[in-house]
Each structure stands twice: as structure tokens, then as C-alpha cells.
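Hypothesis: this fold can be encoded by more than one sequence.
Test: take the C-alpha cells below, design a sequence, compare later.
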């Protein structure tokens, strides 16, 4: 029974608690038991708060017995994991860095504060590369996080611990963050759902940040909708945060039946990028199945965005020298000695060579070109479908930081190449979700990305819910 409790969806857990069919204590114990059995293989956690979680579960149990079900918060008594980039007051938050291994923040991040207010019970903090600076989850502090489908392969990043744990049944609700794909990449690698909401939908801690966002990783679409429901809305600490839209994300998922009223675009290789032959075949077959079963029109299109790898270097790499200084206490020559990944050090080297004019050109005109490319497609289509990644999860890359080849051809920059399809929607500010759409011959998941027009988060979630019905994956479990 404990095993099956751990594999319940978060939505089902919350409903079972409200009905007093399951106790928060039982849920927390089930998830902690699953964590104890899987963690030695996965290395998905930095910190686990066993006693605190159990104490909160006991308190929640008392509240459930004395409170009307309709008065309980939306995820009351449900276990939650939080990526170690989000501050948790009184609980160690390392940002994946040796220099912050003993750091304990004094206040909660906006998102964790809202998840806590919604009734979530923190189980632990999940692994991330140093300050989320890589697309694979490895750091000098925590080592390498493994993929539950194949332990020798990457879980993706930078929310790799979140994706690996939720895919392995360690809770249903994981919280991550995504700049150029840091929710969607690990979700695709580990075969779960990962949502990057519209720019400003979920407030961020970083003033004037208009690309990165927190977001959920879950096994079901409705759980991602549930977490968006409780974390979205304005906050005084974020000047870009959107006002409440009035959209019922959970309701949109529950009422989704088909896609017959929609016209979808399918870009099999955005910007002409190479896609692994097996991944391309799986995604194309999934799109055909969706068109047939969901009754929608699908047009194959070209997505002519600027080269995402070049753009990544110009836009993101100038921040890496400062990151290295932060990680080494101002001694960048000690970076390798302090365990900073070689790919991060290499990106800092590239960043030091980017001129101010090149950065400003990327942040302004080129970013405008990215948005315009999506707008051209979405002006006469409701949603856009792409592969989430050009490859499936690859063997742990070590110093490369990413896949070395695609179809035998060397990757342009290995640590960036597999972010090609998730980078551009982020800079356009568009909502995007990845859902599993099949498995390779080696048993590795393949992700399909759905991108919507600006602020169409509910439509993206509803479409993903229909696709979840066409291509059921939530009951498929890795054999750890």
C-alpha cells in the first residue's frame, strides 16, 4: 500500500486527504520510504528534512480531522520537493555550490512560500548544478544525478534532481526553475511533465528578470496545472509579475476532451537543427497519433529562429565570469580545484570575450527576431509542437557538459546543443510544456514540446491533457 501511495498523483493525494481516506502522515511516510530506497541510486537530493516533514504531517492530520474539506488549501498534506535554487527559510539552500554548502536562508522564495501556504509539506531539496549554470545535473558539491530509466545516463538539468525524483515516484509534486530549458530538458530526459509558464506568470526573485521562471515537474498534466494555480499571480518583489488572469488551469485540464477546434503547427527541426533519427521518428509518430485520435489539423512548418547556440553564448555567457567569481570567492583560477564543472569554466571563458555591443544586440534585436519567428507561426496556428530535445538522455557527459554528437555529427557546443528547442520559447516569453511521447529502443523517454501564444498557459495545459490521453505515460514506471 505504501508503494502505491507514493505513486499517486498530487491531485489524487489532495483529494484523498480532503475525503479523509488517506492521512498526510501516510503520504509522507510513503514518499520518505520511496526516497530511502531510490536515493542511493539516483543522488537526487541535497537535503532531506525527515523529522520536519513527519512533524508537519502529524500537525496536518489534526487539522484535517477538525476542518471542513472545502476549507482546506489546494494541496494540503501533500509532499513536495523543491529545487535547491529556491530559498527555504531555516532549511539549507546551497544553490549546488561548495561555497554555499552551509547556507541557510532566513526567508522563503515567493514560490515556496505559496506552495507552503497551499498546504504542501516539504520533503527535501533536490540537486542542481552550481546556480543552475549547466543543462546536466552535476556539481562539485553533490556529484552526478542519475536518470531513473538508465542510471548511466543524465537526468538533464538544471532541475535534474526534481525530474529524477518525481519520475522515480519520490512524491508527485516537484518544483524547479527554467531559463532556457531547465525544467523542460530534465523532464524530457526523465519522462515527466515540465511546464515553463508565460513570462511573468509566476513571480521570480530576480529583479528585472524576464526570461527565467520557476515551474513544476510532475507525472501528470493536472498536477502541473494545480501547481501553476497556486503559485501564479502578482507579487511586490517582482516588477514583471502578471496580474491574475482569472484562468482556471485545473478546470481547463479537467474539461479538455479533444483538439478538434484547433489548428496545430509542427516544426520537426526548428532552425534547421539536426535531430537524432530515432527521436525524430518517435516524435513524428506521436504527432500523427495526436492528429488522428484528437481530431485536429496539423501543418508541418519551418520555425526560422536565430541559431539558439549562438544566441545562448551572446546572451547568457557574459554572466558566467561573475558566476565563477562567486563560486570561488574571487579566485577564478581555483575553479577546477573547487569542483566547478569544466563546461561552466569554458562558458566563462567565452563570456569574457563577448563585447557589450554583442550582448546588447542579442538582448534586443535578436530577441525580437525570436519572438517574431514564433509570432509568424502562431498568428495562424493555435499551438506549435516541436521535439523537446534533439536527442534523448545521453550518457553522463563529464567535462563536455552535453551530448558530443547528433547522428554522428559533432555538436556545435556540447553543453548547449541539446537546449536548442527549449531556449527560444523562453526568450520569446511564451508558455511551453514538455510531455513524454515515447521511448527509444534503449528504454529512454522522448519529450514532445507544446508552445503557445503569449499568456495562453491554459490552452497549452489543456492540449497537453488531451495528448496525455492519446499517449498515456503516467502509469509507466522505471525499473530501479
Amino acid at each position: 500500500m505504501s508503494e502505491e501511495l507514493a505513486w499517486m498523483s498530487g491531485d489524487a493525494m489532495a483529494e484523498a486527504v480532503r475525503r479523509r481516506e488517506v492521512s498526510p502522515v501516510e503520504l509522507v511516510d510513503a514518499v520518505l520510504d520511496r526516497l530511502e530506497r531510490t536515493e542511493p541510486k539516483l543522488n537526487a537530493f541535497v537535503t532531506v528534512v525527515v523529522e520536519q516533514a513527519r512533524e508537519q504531517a502529524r500537525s496536518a492530520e489534526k487539522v484535517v480531522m477538525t476542518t471542513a474539506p472545502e476549507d482546506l488549501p489546494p494541496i494540503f498534506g501533500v509532499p513536495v520537493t523543491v529545487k535547491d535554487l529556491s530559498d527555504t527559510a531555516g532549511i539549507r539552500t546551497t544553490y549546488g555550490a561548495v561555497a554555499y554548502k552551509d547556507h541557510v536562508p532566513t526567508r522563503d522564495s515567493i514560490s515556496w512560500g505559496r506552495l507552503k501556504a497551499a498546504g504542501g509539506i516539504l520533503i527535501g531539496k533536490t540537486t542542481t548544478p552550481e546556480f543552475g549554470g549547466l543543462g546536466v545535473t552535476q556539481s562539485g558539491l553533490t556529484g552526478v544525478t542519475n536518470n531513473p530509466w538508465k542510471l548511466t545516463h543524465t537526468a538533464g538539468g538544471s532541475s535534474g534532481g526534481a525530474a529524477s525524483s518525481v519520475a522515480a515516484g519520490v512524491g508527485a509534486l516537484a518544483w524547479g526553475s527554467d531559463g532556457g530549458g531547465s525544467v523542460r530538458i530534465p523532464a524530457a530526459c526523465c519522462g515527466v511533465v515540465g511546464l515553463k509558464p508565460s513570462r511573468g506568470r509566476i513571480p521570480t526573485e530576480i529583479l528585472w528578470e524576464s526570461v527565467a521562471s520557476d515551474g513544476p515537474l510532475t507525472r501528470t498534466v493536472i498536477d502541473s496545472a494545480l501547481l501553476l494555480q497556486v503559485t501564479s499571480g502578482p507579487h511586490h518583489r517582482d516588477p514583471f509579475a502578471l496580474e491574475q488572469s482569472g484562468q482556471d488551469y485545473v478546470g481547463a485540464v479537467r474539461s479538455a476532451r479533444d483538439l478538434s477546434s484547433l489548428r496545430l503547427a509542427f516544426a520537426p527541426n526548428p532552425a534547421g537543427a539536426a535531430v537524432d533519427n530515432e527521436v525524430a521518428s518517435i516524435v513524428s509518430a506521436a504527432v500523427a497519433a495526436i492528429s488522428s485520435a484528437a481530431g485536429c489539423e496539423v501543418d508541418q512548418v519551418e520555425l526560422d529562429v536565430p541559431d539558439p547556440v549562438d544566441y545562448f553564448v551572446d546572451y547568457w555567457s557574459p554572466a558566467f565570469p561573475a558566476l565563477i567569481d562567486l563560486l570561488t570567492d574571487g579566485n577564478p583560477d581555483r575553479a577546477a580545484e573547487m569542483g566547478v564543472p569544466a563546461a561552466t569554466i569554458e562558458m566563462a571563458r567565452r563570456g569574457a570575450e563577448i563585447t557589450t555591443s554583442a550582448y546588447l544586440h542579442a538582448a534586443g534585436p535578436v530577441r525580437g527576431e525570436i519572438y517574431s519567428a514564433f509570432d509568424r507561426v502562431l498568428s495562424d496556428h493555435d499551438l506549435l509542437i516541436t521535439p523537446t530535445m534533439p536527442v534523448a538522455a545521453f550518457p553522463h557527459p563529464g567535462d563536455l557538459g552535453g551530448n558530443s554528437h547528433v547522428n554522428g555529427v559533432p555538436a556545435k557546443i556540447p553543453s548547449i546543443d541539446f537546449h536548442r528547442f527549449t531556449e527560444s520559447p523562453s526568450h520569446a516569453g511564451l508558455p511551453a510544456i514538455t510531455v513524454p511521447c515515447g521511448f527509444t529502443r534503449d528504454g529512454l523517454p522522448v519529450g514532445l514540446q507544446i508552445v503557445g501564444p503569449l499568456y495562453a498557459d491554459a490552452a497549452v495545459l489543456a492540449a497537453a491533457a488531451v495528448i496525455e490521453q492519446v499517449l498515456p505515460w503516467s502509469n509507466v514506471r522505471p525499473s530501479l
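The two ends are 18 Å apart (CA to CA). The mean pLDDT is 96.
Hypothesis status: open.
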